[in-house]
Amino acid sequence: MPVPGTLRVSNEVIADLAGYAAMECYGVVGMAYTDDQQHIVDLLSLRTLRKGIEVKVEDGKVIVILHVVVNSQVNMRQVTENLKSTVSFVLKTIAEIKDAEVRVFIEDIRAR
Q: Would 97 disulfide with which of 21, 52, 71, 91, CB 3.0-4.6 Å?
């Protein structure tokens, strides 16, 4: 039975949900953070996943941008589509965000 009211979810919580969902996807080694000055890609720990995720709202639509490191043995297109689908599903199911746009940037490829 639905509960009346409004659900508000912070960008940080959306980033956490997206990050944990992404880490469960096949072929994802981890989230990435790129140092703009040194151009070094860091693989982030579970406690710092948010650094590899941007959340913004444009024209009333939630946009989630994932910066990931993928396994060198996977099909990048399939991993990207799986990431988009999984993150969208989690945001819709848990945070009730119906039409989130998920963008994926593969920052590095590594052997697991």
A: 91
CA pair distance 52, 71, nearest whole angstrom: 17
C-alpha angle 97-102-106 in degrees, rounded to nearest 5: 150
Domains, in order of start, for the chain: 11-110 (3.30.70.1350)
pLDDT in tens, 1-60: 777 888 788 999 999 999 999 999 999 999 999 877 777 788 888 888 899 999 999 999
Rg from Cα positions in the chain: 14
Distance CA 89, CA 8 (A): 18
Contact indicator for 108, 52 with CB cutoff of 8 Å: no
Q: Are 16 and 49 in contact (CB under 8 A)?
A: yes
Type of residue found at 48: T
Instruction: In whole angstroms, give the CA distance from residue 22 to residue 31.
Output: 8
Integer Cα distance of 16 and 20 in angstroms = 6
Q: Which residue has the tokens 């990431």?
A: 83
